[in-house]
Amino acid sequence: GVSNGEVLTWASAGSKKAVKTRDGILDPQEALTTVLKTPIHRFRYDPSAPEGVNTGDFATQYAGPLAEEAPWAMHHNGTILNPVNTIGYPIAAIQAQQAQIDAMKAEIAALKAR
Fold first, then answer.
1. Within 13 Å of residue 102, how many CA atoms lie on the same side as its CB?
2. pLDDT of 41-94, one tens digit each?
3. What is the bridge-based pairing of β-strands 62-64 and 41-43?
4. Contact 29, 96 (CB under 8 A)
């Protein structure tokens, strides 16, 4: 757990279903809509920002969402990237796109069969 102000890391968070209370399946179309409307910015961390709110790497150009524009990808009151959601939403979005592709393939096959 979290104690003495320490934050759990991804490595220490349990991933197996035995340690979760599940709330259902994320709707793939909802995930696709959410991912598609999230702006992805190119940025570098500001060296004048307080320590602990950047990677310490001020040369690398990153590409990613801003916390304020992607609350679905954040936790700890919008201050820390949520690695579970940042993989879960894109996976569900890909599932939605695959469903769209499969439907288009079926439609094309039906047209060709005429």
1. 6
2. 999 999 998 877 788 899 999 999 999 999 999 998 998 889 999 999 999 999
3. antiparallel
4. yes
